[in-house]
Design a protein that fits this description.
two-stranded parallel ribbon, 131 residues, mainly alpha
Length: 131
């Protein structure tokens, strides 16, 4: 099992990144962020940074067995153990939408995300998680 962690400097970088994304979005730039949450504190900070920003939280995932298969097959930047180290955390988050990439092509998944992001804002699940 492998987990990505952070220290105080990394935490400040993450907070700055979250606020930079919010600043772009709040001046009208359409933003899509691909993020693997390190812990629930990161999700809470996203929620704080994006509090006034219409946001869609999408979980793009697949069954654990498929994610493990992909992890083993990855040749460019292999990172064995990250699925085991982070999947349980991601399963605690209640997203606005979940896309199972074992059931759809990458193109169809991207198309679905763009459709959802283009719909009128309806609030967000940011900050909603199962304990």
């Amino acid at each position: 099992m492998r987990r990505i962690g952070r220290g105080p400097v990394g935490w400040h970088l993450l907070q700055g990144f979250h606020r930079a994304v919010a600043a772009y979005a709040n001046v009208g730039v359409n933003v899509i962020v691909d993020d693997m949450l390190l812990d629930l504190e990161v999700l809470r900070d996203w929620a704080e940074a994006l509090a006034i920003t219409p946001t869609l939280l999408a979980s793009v995932t697949a069954p654990k067995a498929e994610l493990l298969r992909r992890e083993v097959a990855r040749q460019l930047h292999p990172t064995p153990g990250l699925v085991a180290g982070h999947l349980d955390l991601h399963r605690t988050i209640v997203p606005d939408v979940e896309i199972d990439t074992s059931q759809t092509t990458p193109e169809d998944a991207a198309r679905r995300l763009l459709e959802l992001a283009s719909a009128p804002p309806r609030g967000s699940a940011l900050g909603v998680y199962r304990s």
